[in-house]
Amino acid sequence: MLLINCPYCGERDQSEFTNGGEAHVARPKDPDQVNDREWSEYVFVRANPKGIYYERWVHTHGCKKWFNAIRDTSTDEILKIYKIGETPPLIKRFKNTLRSPSGEPDVGSGNFTVKKP
Amino acid sequence: MSEHKIYFKFDGKTYGGNEGDTIAAALLRNNVKLVGRSFKYHRPRGIYTCGIEEPNALVQIINEHNEPNVRATVKKIYEGMVVKSQNRWPSLKRDLGSINNILSPIFSAGFYYKTFMGPKGFWKNVYEPLIRRTAGLGKPPREFRSKSIHLHHNVDIVIVGGGFSGLLAAKKLAGTNYDVLLIEREDSLGGILKNTKKIELINDQNPSDWIEKTERLIQNSRNIKVLKNTLMTTYNFSDHLIAVEDKSVGKPQDNEKPELVLHKIRTKQTILANGHIERFISFRNNDLPGVMLAASFEKYIQKYGVVPEESPVIFTNNSSTFSLVKSLVDLGHKPKAYVDVRDQKKIEKETVELLNKYNIPLYAKSEIEGCEGKNEISKVSIRVKKNEIIKIKTSMLCVSGGFNPDIHLFTQSKGLLKWDETILAFKPEKTFQNTITLGSVSGNFSYEKLIGEINKKLDFFEGINDLEIKLNINGPKKFQIKELWETNHAKKSLWSKSFIDLQNDVTTKDLKQAVLEGFNRIEHLKRFTTNSMGTDQGKISSINALGIVSKILKKSVSEVGTTIYRPPYAPLSFSAIAGRSTYEFYDPERKTPVHPWHVKHNAVFEDVGQWKRPWYFKKHNNESMEQAVQRESKQVRESAGILDGSTLGKIEIKGKDALAFVNLIYTNSFTKMKPMTARYALMLGEDGMVKDDGIVCKINDQHFLTTTTTGGAANVLAHMEEYAQTEWPNMNVYMNSITEQFSTFNISGPKARTIMSRVFNNIDFSNESFPFMTFNNFDYLNTKVRILRASFTGEPGYEIYVSPKHALTLWERIFYYSKDLDLVPYGTETMHLLRAEKGYIIVGQDTDGTVTPIDLNLNWMIGKKKKDFIGKRSLTRSDIVRSDRKQLVGLVPLNKAYGIEEGQHVIEEKNLNTPIKKPVKMLGHVTSSYFSPTLNHSVAMALIKGGNRKIGSQLYVSTSDLNVIPVEVVKPNFIDPKNERLIS
Ligand SMILES: [Zn+2]
Q1: Contacting residues of A for B419, CB less than 8 Å apart
Q2: Rounded to an integer, what distance in angstroms lies between the CA atom of residue A23 and that of residue B235?
Q3: Distance from CA of residue B120 to its chain's centroid?
Q4: pLDDT tens, position by position, B733-785
């Protein structure tokens, strides 16, 4: 279970929070001016990267405030938490903090052993 | 060891054991070896180990609500305990299921998968009844009320394991500023120091004295808390660990106190000092009662003072069995034979000297070929040369196939492993979290090197000093092993089997067969053969399986790889997980202030979300639900009815931008709406689908009150908050749930106005001064009420909002004033019927998240002139404007005597041939259907493709007995289509 640092309440267990999907997906300012494709991309399409991801969280069983987080989806490490309205930090800043298990399986699942001595 | 005898029952017979004995120790004390039957073949099984890793000795504790699959090697006895063996019928010694053993060819690898493939009818008639009767372990427990609790910890360091390494780590950390939690799964600290003869002296003291002194030091340090009888089950992400503590070890469960405590631990650093597990070797009939792991055998002697057998045969491939021989000869016993697969020259000189000294026959470069016996071992076969087998009579065989570092928790933490050729085992290689491994779990099997390892690995903690320790070690100082997973099987008979997984009855032959059938990936092989999928997760055997498979595939074990170890480390009772969240504490029950009145008037309740809502009121005990609903709804239309609507979600919206916000949240336009009026409103998702509905009351442009469906209240508020905070953070708008601040009653029916005029005799309820969809606040007695003219039944109706404190009084007064007016209290079922007669939808029943307002013909609710609202743009997407989308229509059966069933398909076919041979075109389904007592026939609503164009035509609805009934498609408004009654 992740430990999430709510910018308003401090560190709390993940079970108090709800994930709100990708962050910074802007709602078109004038929805009537975008075509079907652009609109449906806003409504339905979200990135699902392995690695660094900007996402939204809400402290559902707490202050009920929404905020943004940068999480590495391959390690589940939360690298940064910032409030709504704050400028999102650049992805470049986080490149070197990846701590993904180096021996992740090359075939199939679950072979969590180091291959090369 | 206390000599106080404790008496308990096993399979109806009373046995005596010592205080502190596990069930297994006590049974061995009484020379009981047969304790269970195996999973598939019903073979006799005994006690194989002395701890959590036990695959065989699983029992059921009858006096603890039949708790099944309890490890006899862990559970301690107490006076009056009643224990039963599992999976045997009719009795342990004469088990009819063991016929499966003879049928074993059909139970081979992939058996379960293959049964699904035929021959036809075999599953239903042969396999399933057979499997259900004979397979499986314990029977389910009886229902009981769990008293378990959850505890949370926030610490700096967790030490898992209070053995030698764990104690040394704790000693180092004692008195520092770190908050430390030491978790030990047994009832005492010391581990290997207590279970073996491996270490003679520590700093010239007896190990037991050293343990006592160290424990006192830890206790006096004040920064270390020790939890005994506590099993670490889970190592999650973010250094979050879960351990379960057994509070009733060695005593019956207390009726008042919690039996289990689930510890949820957050730590900064985890020290794994959880040791190792001995593994077995596969040979012919290696499952017979009497076969036991060597270190377990020694633990029974050292920890429990039980000698399971004074002269067993010992079979090993490594140096560790020295201490078992030492334990036995120190007590004056003598092993019958010592069989070592290694060459004489390779066997440690300490061992050879000890064997020679006591005249114990050593069979070097030999192996156990197999063993024989009926319900337990009677003799073992030793292959002394390639073609020479000698037989020795014995009742017990101690086996050591080497040791695995107990890497289960380490891999749960996502740490990486590496195969170590010197110890022939996987050991931790790379940590993923803040994990330190110490001692044998790290692959260090040398006690001399232990203190150096600990000093080095814990060096970075602040304020700790190097420890020095002097050890006198018995026997070989270095761990040495020769690879041996399975010995050659000489005898061929159906009964002769060489097992790789004792709990799931998987043989080494099954492994070979699975590889032959193409399951050569270890994860596939595991699932196909069910190897290591039992409750023990193959703790003594899964690495052996890798060894055998690697030999077949001619690959290294490292290349074959391990399967993933998943939490929990060992099974834990559901009651520990549930904690106090059972029965009425599972989920809050919400009751309205009028609830006691409903109970008194025979309401039958329905759960709506967490709310208890009256479903219908029983007039007398023999009245059925159907009769009650027909009576209630008829009475509403003929005179008047009252519904407790207090459960409806209520949200207050305030702020300078409240109007703009409400305009964005709902489809309707609220700009031109006059203050103190109300509107039925729809809420969409951004995809244009109906999300919720309710009534929006406008007090003024800065202040609105909205209602939501009972089940949708929390979601609607969350939806509003999300948009207010993330999309329009600059809007000045605030929302608050006021669901529980107001109780709500709905009074509707032709006599509603009369009732209201009597209860509130100073208010003018005439149509002119109190028109439809308006509301106002009034003083009433010493409180205030808000009254809204609205209706969900199609009859004239009023909604009263009152403070919960006054709700019950007001409710009773309404009945007092309506004595002669035939007012009926009604429940949700009647409400559903009445609204269906009017074609009013219920979100979640007539909609399912794929329905737009256009599909519902609610276009009039869409504020088309509004520039934007949530979901607006989606309503013009090409898929949404298709004319052949499913649309909401009404259905009336042509033959008025027929009823329409909810959920049935709407089709064009006149007949359904049974059995149905070709696909039937489905137009849609019936979403709501009721028998209308007012119309005297069934009325239904349905979502059907291109429904609007089908109005007036004839279609068919399937029935649950595979018939069809003809229906006419109509507009979904069955009573008073012009709404004359509604606004009268
Ligand atoms: Zn918070």
Answers
A1: 113
A2: 30
A3: 34
A4: 999 999 999 999 999 999 999 999 999 999 999 999 999 999 999 999 889 99
Determine the Cα–Cα distance for residues B112 and B131; give it in Å rounded to an integer: 10
- How far apart (Å, rounded) are the C-alpha atoms in residues B359 and B351? 12
Q: What does the pLDDT look like over B868-899, one tens digit per residue?
A: 999 999 999 999 999 999 999 999 999 999 99
- Nearest Cα neighbor of B572 from B146, B184, B69 is B69
CA of A67 to the centre of ligand 1 (A): 9
Same domain for B912 and B817? no
Which of B726, B735, B787 is CA-nearest to residue B756? B787
Beta pairing, strands B640-644 & B13-18: unpaired
What's the ipTM? Answer: 0.90
pLDDT at position B775, please? 97
In this structure, the strands spanning B313-316 and B337-340 are: parallel
Q: Hey, which residues does B932 pair with through a beta bridge?
A: B937
CB atoms within 10 A of CB B559: 13
CB B569, CB B792: distance < 8 Å: no
Domain closes at, from B339, B366, B401: B401
| A27-60 pLDDT, tens digit each | 999 999 999 999 999 999 999 887 789 999 999 9
Of the CA atoms within 13 Å of residue B667, those in its CB half-sphere come to 29
User: Residue B822 carries which side chain, given as an amino acid letter?
Assistant: D
- Helices B207-221 and B164-173 pack at an angle, to 10 degrees, of 40
Nearest to B726 among A31, A60, A66 (CB): A66
In angstroms, what is the span from residue B153 Cα to ligand 1's centroid? 20
Domain hosting B384: range is 280-401
Tally the domains of chain B. 6
Question: Homologous superfamily of A3-93 in CATH?
Answer: Folate-binding superfamily (3.30.2270.10)
Query: Taking Cα atoms as reference points, which of B823, B850, B684 lies closest to residue B756?
Result: B823
List B76's β-bridge partners, or say none: B22
Residues bordering ligand 1, an ion, CB closer than 5 Å = A 6, 8-9, 59, 62-63
Of B135 and B638, which is predicted with more confidence?
B638
B187 pLDDT exceeds 50?
yes
